[in-house]
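Feature request, filed as a ticket because there's no other form

It would be nice if the structure record came with a short human-readable summary line next to the tokens. Right now we just get the raw output. Example of a typical job, pasted below so the devs can see what we mean:
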Amino acid sequence: MSRRWTARLALAAGLAALLVLVVFGGLGSLVLMGVGWAGLGLTAAGVWWMLTHTGWIRALALLLVVAAPVAVLVLYAAAGLLWVVLVSLGLWLLAVGAGRAALADGTSPAMPERPVGRARRPFLIMNPRSGGGKVGKFRLAERARALGAEVVVLDPAHRQDVAELARRAVRDGADLLGVAGGDGTQALVAGVAAEHDIPFMVISAGTRNHFAMDLGLDRQDPSTCLEALTDGVELRVDIGHIHAGHVPTGEPADRNAGRVFVNNASFGVYAAVVQSPAYRDDKARTMLEMLPDLLTHHSGARLSVSAGPLTVDGPQAVLVSNNPYQRGDSAGLGRRERLDSGELGVLSVDVTSAAEAAQLLLYGGQGRGLTEVTAREVVVDADAPVIPVGVDGEALMLPTPVHCRLAPGALRVRVPRHRPGVPYSPPPVDWRRVRRLALTMGRVAAGRGAD
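Raw output as currently delivered:
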């Protein structure tokens, strides 16, 4: 189906959703919509109260979260209009899906790649515990050695400095560095590769493999990443640098670089929770115990964020990413369309009341509690000398202020010539654009027919 007809389907389905409510619900359709919105608002408020309180207030909030949607459904059923609501909701979901599909051009702008020759002395570091043992399951070490790579398999019983292993390999003549492991390990070795301007190779043997996903690699079968050793191409991507303490303004990102991140650095609530010794043993309980004080600023440092001309005071959570995450991604914060935009993504959350929490839910993530910008440099300061920071999933304690800077095109990444590609996520629905697409393209087609 053409984009024009998909846009028309979106408009027709949206209109049908409204007509079903009006025709079969009558004047009660307005009451139906009001009850539905009220139920959503109460649910969001209940979630907020549940996260920011303990004891009997948390218990009552949990009851509200369960009771509000159930009560809405019971009211609809009692009025004999439950089927009307379900049909209208189904049509609206069809309208939104068709609208997103109409606005999508079906392709994701690819990062430039260039052909390269085969590495003479590739050096790979593999973590046998990553991803539940993917290194052993897919026989990655044996396969890599058969392709001529030197492989070091880390000893789980002893902590090893992977960055030092990589530097030693470079001194011994390695002309490519690679990692089969989590994103934290990837970032440490990527920093060494960027420092020496030699290619870096990602093997998707971690648990989440966010960096591998955004490079378009196969996350299901990490052995396919080894094809980069024999039939690879090279991408130039950005990397982030995180500097702790006072850094002279305007100093290049690659000087006294500090810690490298390939995905993101998180500050505030999440970073504080993962620092807790109890977090590994019982994540859910630890979060529920710590969140009330952290979200209400009764514990933890008060942050201040500067991103270009924008300053945000007192956010509860801040995420600084190496290139911005996509908007409208149904999977949430997880995908970056490009890794070479030259911009950091900044997401700041500051929700201070149940009303603001409800607003974020009702307006699809739009509201005063959420700030989203891009910048070349971000400074996170606090009213404490040291703050918790999560860097590519690694929990750190860093002195303030913390500077995040981007080094555009600093990392040469070697990837297989043939790979799945970056998952494409259609853009959010813009109904004005959908309407313009449905009508304007028809007029253009009519004009061409007249010629």
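Something like this underneath would help us a lot:
The first helix runs from residue 3 to 25.
Residues 304 and 313 are 5 Å apart (CA to CA).
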